[in-house]
Amino acid sequence: MLKILVCVKQVPDVDQMRMDPETGNLIRAGVPAILNPLDANALSAAVSVKEEYGGEITLITMGPPNAEAVLRECLAVGADRAVLVTDRAFGNADTLATSYSIVSAAKQVDNFDLIFCGKETLDGATGQMGPQLAERFDAAQVTSASLIREIDEANGTLVVERELESGIETLRVKMPCLFTMEKTNYPVRIPTLKGKMAAKKAAITTFTADDIPGLDRNRIGDPGSPTKVPRMFPPVMPEPGQIIDEGSVEGSVAKLLTLIKE
Ligand code: FAD
Known about the structure:
Blueprint (H helix, E strand, L loop, with lengths): L2 E5 L2 E3 L5 E2 L6 E2 L5 E3 L1 H17 L2 E7 L5 H8 L5 E5 L9 H15 L4 E5 L10 H9 L2 E13 L4 E8 L2 E8 L2 E5 L11 H9 L2 E4 L41 H13 L1
Parallel strand pairs: 1-6, 1-8, 6-7, 7-13, 8-12, 9-12
Antiparallel strand pairs: 2-5, 3-4, 9-10, 10-11
Helix pairs in contact: 2-5, 3-4
The structure holds flavin-adenine dinucleotide.
């Protein structure tokens, strides 16, 4: 049976987020938290793979306790179980510490054949997590995966399409394999009422730092994060340009020439 892991992140709805121009801090108060949109695409792909080839989908997220909400949302569209990695000791983690923490927890749960991620998140948007997770899982990685064409479980291989600017690339890779997903060829999954009811009651496995044997405390949270962000500030927007439309090409060109001469 295919063991499928989907990595999901709860993110603030950035459309509703502002930055404090004085401190450069993001104002998160009152901003609703949502499932990272590209993680919804990754989950849709995983559910379609499960429907076609069988298997079991495990979700994992690292975040604050209320990140449980996105796990329940994802359980409602067809995942089987969910893992929440949460502890103050994981806080202030950069991507290096986050990928170490997630893989350390995931390895306590199972050995996964397929790992699905979004290409990037709405908030951090580094796009580093997929490649880092693949490295730590010792898995092949296929970025910008758009369609999993066939899976040969007996031989441990699969055929996958990547959508590139120049066209579609088809690859045959060995499992375990990690995909990062942006645009996919899979239908978006909407939770059913039955799914929502079941997800509400589902048990969620929670890992704190103490629950992960052998976890190196120097590699998690703040101590494990070499990335330092000295300052954040909103970009200075250039003056808006002037649109010249005099009703005809000739008129607009004449007006433009006048303005240049002036
Ligand atoms: P990307 O690489 O853009 O994400 C790609 C994919 O990886 C996602 O689509 C998803 O599938 C998966 N993924 C990403 N993050 C997670 C996750 N947490 N769980 C499961 N799957 C995931 N964030 C905080 O919330 N609290 C903090 O205190 C905090 N402190 C930080 C301090 C520093 C110095 C830095 C640099 C970052 C900090 N962050 C903090 C941000 C945090 O490190 C990132 O959100 C996280 O590492 C993921 O990076 P990203 O959002 O760029 O993910």
